[in-house]
Design brief:
The protein has 31 helices and three strands. The protein has 554 residues and is mostly helical. The protein has a domain of 102 residues: Orthogonal Bundle (Arc Repressor Mutant, subunit A). It has a three-stranded antiparallel β-sheet with strand order 1-3-2. A hairpin with a 6-residue loop joins strand 2 and strand 3.
């Protein structure tokens, strides 16, 4: 500060430089100060000689950097508020006038100077542009910061239709950024989408409703509010009406398919997933991944794969899931890759009882999530890792890991698949010889399923309950187990899940064989197995075939 005071002729240059930032160029300093070369060069030479700044290069290409942030702050503090606003306005004007490339590549710099100059409407526009630019290169933390700075300034401009439109644009852009950085179900993510939805009416632009409803759907889905998620998908299709274009149909049907798979209405999910995929066009809809957080076609394939598996077509399911993974890799959109690895990779491996594929997917998803800063997929990869550990016989470690993964999912506001996670925890407890705890956890999972309407795992949970009851071994264990397995069978049938029906029928048949009820076992499992036309290498079908062979030898 004392050295600055002794450099009176340089004081004005130091103040402008401090307002520009820690580093400033000769050209920008000249544009703002409006000094000729013969006036500016000696002043900057004197400034450099004071050892308060360092110089790189020679004018007009020279760059100057304050040696310490404290020096910059000290120079800036010598300005009155009115002087600061005037200089920031001059900097903003110079950048817009003389540095078009900087304006285009660094709108955040213009946003900062306009904010400090009190040019709030301009500043908000530049913060919005900076947010879009950052999101376009998947720098979502930066995007969120820029957009939130724009929102903070809204109260500084008049309340009118223009402000409503600007506010809508900010919230609409912030939602996807928060999806990635905070998680789909984080409270701030939901708030962003709800603000945008509430502003849709005043904006009166139906073409913008797709990303908003889709984002809101994803948030409700992650919070395990499946009734509200389904309602959101149906409302979107209803708003689109009879004149809905292919994009709207793809979005709406995909949302409903996703919700119905979780709720356990697999036949309806299959119908909507097929309609979503039929309306998808990669050339037209591929670029929309940046607005929807993941590609609509990849997502439709993931949920079509789930419903095809339940419908009893495991080979067709696996083929469509491979397509989803290939499409995701070709699109090279980080969150879409995470989505495909989760649904078409890990969840598929869990259903198919493929521990090697599950372990591989856990590794790939975890590395991908870490590289791209995707906390929601990182939490899910931890769950897959735990299940892979369980499959390889380390039940005690798996229990700890599953509980930790559930905690990580909760931290990012993601509570979907909680019944499945609890089901895996029950199985781990069974493997560890803790049958009483397994039964308690299975009951908890069914309670969560009832509370959230996520009933797609109910049949498996009843089957796990039956195994726990048998392991406990009370006097009425076999009767109770048979009752639980019958419930599993009825649930699978009511949900149109051929695969879970087969799995439950196999368990019932095993129990009946143990009770010397081989004819009943044969009459049950034979027709269920006989329906299938593909997937005979799948573990579930092989288990059923082994039971049938065992019955035939009795």
């Amino acid at each position: 500060m004392a050295r600055l005071d002794r450099l009176a002729p340089v004081r004005g240059i130091a103040q402008i430089g401090a307002a520009i930032g820690r580093e400033f160029s000769y050209e920008l300093m000249q544009a703002v100060s409006k000094l000729a070369d013969h006036e500016l060069s000696p002043l900057l030479d004197q400034f450099v000689a004071s050892e308060l700044v360092q110089q790189r290069g020679s004018p007009p290409d020279a760059l100057y950097t304050f040696k310490h942030a404290l020096v910059q702050d000290a120079a800036y503090e010598t300005l009155l508020k009115s002087q600061r606003a005037r200089i920031h306005a001059q900097i903003a004007e110079a950048i817009k006038r003389d540095f078009p490339e900087m304006s285009a590549r660094h709108p955040d710099v213009l946003a900062h100077h306009c904010s400090e100059a009190g040019l709030f409407e301009e500043a908000i526009g530049y913060w919005l542009k900076a947010g879009h630019l950052a999101a376009g290169r998947f720098a979502n933390i930066e995007a969120a910061v820029n957009l939130e700075k724009g929102l903070e300034l809204l109260d500084r401009i008049p309340a009118d239709a223009v402000r409503d439109r600007t506010e809508f644009e900010l919230w609409a852009a912030l939602g996807p950024a928060l999806n990635v950085t905070r998680g789909y179900g984080a409270p701030e993510t939901i708030a962003a989408y709800e603000h945008a939805r509430d502003l849709l009416r005043s904006v009166n632009d139906p073409s913008r409703s797709g990303p908003i409803y889709h984002g809101l759907f994803s948030a409700y889905y992650s919070r395990a509010n499946f009734d509200k998620a389904l309602e959101t998908g149906k409302e979107f299709l209803s708003r689109a009406g009879d004149q809905a274009d292919a994009s709207s149909l793809c979005i709406g049907h995909r949302m409903i398919a996703c919700a119905q798979n979780s709720i356990g209405d697999f036949a309806l999910a299959l119908d909507h997933a097929e309609q979503a995929l039929a309306n998808y066009d990669v050339d037209r809809h591929g670029p929309l991944a940046w607005r929807f957080n993941h590609d609509l076609g990849v997502s439709a394939r993931c949920h079509l794969g789930i419903s095809l598996w339940h419908a009893g077509y495991p080979e067709r399911s696996r083929a469509i899931e491979r397509e989803a993974l290939e499409f995701a890799a070709n699109l090279n959109h980080p969150n879409t890759i995470g989505y495909a690895l989760y649904f078409a990779g890990g969840i598929s491996a869990v259903r198919r009882r493929d521990p090697e594929a599950l372990a591989d997917c856990a590794r790939r998803l975890g590395a991908h999530a870490k590289h791209h800063g995707l906390p929601h997929w990182s939490a899910r990869s931890a769950w897959f890792e735990a299940l892979a550990i369980l499959a390889h016989g380390s039940a005690a470690e798996a229990i700890v890991r599953i509980q930790a993964a559930m905690g990580l999912c909760g931290q990012v506001g993601n509570y979907s698949f909680r019944p499945a996670m609890l089901g895996g925890l029950a199985v781990a407890n069974l493997a560890a010889g803790r049958a009483d705890e397994a039964l308690r956890v299975a009951d908890e999972a069914l309670q969560v399923a009832e509370q959230t309407s996520e009933r797609g795992f109910d049949a498996e949970l009843w089957r796990v309950k039956a195994e726990a009851v048998l392991a406990i071994g009370e006097s009425n264990a076999q009767a109770m187990a048979e009752s639980h397995l019958d419930t599993a069978l009825q649930v699978a049938r009511s949900q149109a899940s051929r695969m879970l029906e087969l799995r439950a029928a196999t368990s019932v048949a095993r129990l009946w064989i143990h009770q010397d009820r081989t004819t009943e076992a044969s009459n049950l499992i034979g027709p269920v197995f006989g329906w299938f036309t593909e997937g005979f290498a799948e573990p579930d079908l092989q288990d059923a075939k082994n039971v049938i062979d065992r019955v035939s030898r009795c």
